[in-house]
Amino acid sequence: MNIQKELLTINPFSRPGTKLIVVKAIVIHWVGSVGSTAKQCRDYFESLKSQSSACYASAHFIVGMSGEVIQCIPNEEMAYHVGAKTYTPDAMGCLGHYPNNCTLGIELCHPTTEGYFTEETTRAALELCALLCTQFGLNPARDIWTHNGITGKYCPKWFVDHPGKFEDFKLGVAIMMGKR
Ligand SMILES: [Zn+2]
């Protein structure tokens, strides 16, 4: 698949340069900003390096509404996508006390506040997850999480509102892996 690498500059707020301990899981997010493109989201993460407040945010991949995929943090490095004060018991059990250090984050763009994903976004996200699950030996049914499943945050809205769609998504990844 076509992955555009537009890596962030190393900086304390979005690309700390810290190595992941291991890749145990993939975490799905929505960008939360209606109509934002993958490039705009990537540039937002980059802009955090020169902010005056202290907002920490990033993800490894961003999938746009046309199915474009931008990678802004290398797979070996930590992103700030799932940090919180508290984590769900499930996440603590599977991913430890700081899931940022063992997960890859994927942000999905969306055209409306409802948060549904375009066919192009969904297809590209399925393909990306299948690729990463194969590369890191992950089981989609067990190792693909929503941000909500890890911290309780309302993210990604579409999958929180429609849990069946998330189950379909994970099944879609498994099917795609079987085809490879
Ligand atoms: Zn999120």
How would you sum up this structure, described in words?
There is one protein chain. This protein is of the alpha/beta class and 180 residues long. The protein has a single domain (3-179), classed as Peptidoglycan recognition protein-like (Lysozyme-like), CATH 3.40.80. 37% of the residues lie in helices and 13% in strands. It contains seven helices and six strands, in the order ββαββαβααβααα. It has helices at 38-47, 89-95, 119-136, 140-143, 147-151, 157-161, 163-179; strands at residues 3-5, 25-30, 61-63, 69-71, 103-108, 144-146. A six-stranded mixed β-sheet has the order 1-4-3-5-2-6, sandwiched between helices. β3 and β4 form a beta hairpin. α3 packs across α7. The longest helix has 18 residues, at 119-136. It is globular. 43% of the residues are buried. The mean pLDDT is 97. Zinc ion binds next to loops.
- Give the distinct bound molecules: zinc ion
Please state the average pLDDT score: 97
Question: What is the chain-wise order of helices and strands?
Answer: EEHEEHEHHEHHH
Give the total of domains. 1
The chain-level structural class is alpha/beta
Annotation, overall tally of beta strands: 6
Q: Main β-sheet: number of strands, strand sense, barrel status?
A: 6 strands, mixed
CATH superfamily: Peptidoglycan recognition protein-like
Give the low-confidence spans. Answer: none
Write out the strand line-up for the largest beta sheet, numbering strands in chain order: 1-4-3-5-2-6
Count up the helices. Answer: 7
Keywords:
180 residues; alpha/beta; 7 helices; binds zinc ion
